[in-house]
Design goal:
The structure is a homodimer.
Chain A: H1 14-39, E1 42-48, E2 54-58, H2 63-84, H3 97-111, H4 119-197, H5 201-204
Antiparallel strand pairs in A: 1-2
Helix pairs in contact in A: 3-4
Chain B binds a DNA duplex through helix 1.
Chain lengths: 213, 213
DNA sequence: ATCGCTATCTATAAGCG
DNA sequence: TCGCTTATAGATAGCGA
């Protein structure tokens, strides 16, 4: 799309990259939305800019359900994998952190020629694993915190709106009070019309009928 | 795209919907992948078909990126404390999972007399570590999900309240309209009082003064 | 950073095996 | 359900303000 074909590689020019990011991000969001509507499915999309800003799209109130489903789905999948002992092929070559860890361990072990490992090596391995776990944990926290922050913002927003509406209701309530008073007036006015009917015609000239719904 | 323009509404024909889902899903995955590569960002995409099958795409977390994120770790932790009252419950006591992992590794290593470890033992160790990581990950997810769910509930609650208040405002607004009408009545009523003052005393007997604030 | 433009490229709806 | 084809709608790169 666009004037020239684009290679599938990182756009090196920072400016172009940013512009492209903005456009494509919106495109992706739009398409995600279309998918949910057209095909009646649930979609959750999270995009983390290089600055760590989160852009997300997800099906209406169901993010919880989506993440929930995702969690149980993954757990199930991992258990299955554990017993079947084979990797599920992934079209885009992405890996979940656990897979990554497993692979790193494997790599580490391979690199160091297993049979020669001694106490020192194991100590090294231990610390590598420690680091990996810590990093995974951090990343996980960050991701979840983004979600939490987002929800927190939404909550604040809604609270503000609620407050505003409270005021509005209060104002409107005053009108209601006035309404009551005027209703009393109305009753008296109607009584007056009846009374007035007793008056002679010449005195009735300027009085019009008033209808109240 | 395609032969005809498509309305943004659920495709009713089941077959077309399925075909469309398949095509658009792949398109979305592809575009997500392009975005990650071209713009060098992280993307996570989850699609749940109506049958509950998960299709997902996500960036493999690169170590570099995670390391870069480490700086914000302290901040994140701080945020966590700030937003989430109380500490995160842990099945493993007060130790942080990473410490615990280290200890478990140590224990495992001690128990098995390091120097006798061979390939098989290391393989076992690797898998134990994998399991531990998984447990930690799952537990962490559960805890965070509770927070998210809680916030989600709060959000829903506030939305409901907002809706209720909306209705209230609407009702009150009707009163405001009635108020207007009655104000007209009031004007006429006052006019009538003036007119009525012209009438003779015997006809004025039943009319009282009415004050309106 | 964003907006508009438009030439081009891509995704995909419809149709056919 | 799938794959392939084709005409078109849609996305977007490049550029200017």
């Amino acid at each position: 799309m666009g004037r020239g074909k684009v290679e599938l590689k990182r756009i090196e020019d920072k400016s172009s990259r940013q512009v492209s990011f903005s456009k494509r991000r919106n495109g992706l969001m739009k398409k995600s939305h279309e998918l949910t509507v057209l095909c009646d499915v649930d979609v959750a999309l999270f995009i983390f800019s290089s600055k760590g800003i989160l852009y997300e799209f997800s099906t209406g109130e169901s993010m919880t359900r989506i993440l929930d489903s995702y969690q149980s789905y993954k757990e199930t999948e991992e258990l299955t994998r554990k017993y079947i002992h084979g990797k599920l092929p992934s079209e885009y070559g992405d890996m979940c952190p656990a897979d990554e860890l497993a692979e790193m361990i494997q790599r580490h072990v391979d690199e160091n020629n297993i049979k020669k490992l001694d106490t020192t090596d194991l100590y090294q391995l231990e610390h590598n694993l420690y680091d990996i776990l810590r990093l995974v944990k951090i990343r996980k926290t960050q991701v979840m915190m983004e979600v939490v922050k987002d929800l927190q913002n939404k909550e604040m927003q809604l609270k503000k709106e609620k407050k505003t509406m409270m005021n509005e209701v209060k104002v409107k309530s005053n009108f209601q009070l006035k309404l009551q008073k005027l209703n009393e007036v109305k009753v008296k006015f109607e009584w007056l019309q009846i009374t007035e009917a007793k008056l002679d015609d010449t005195n009735n000239d300027g009085v019009m009928d008033v209808e109240i719904a």
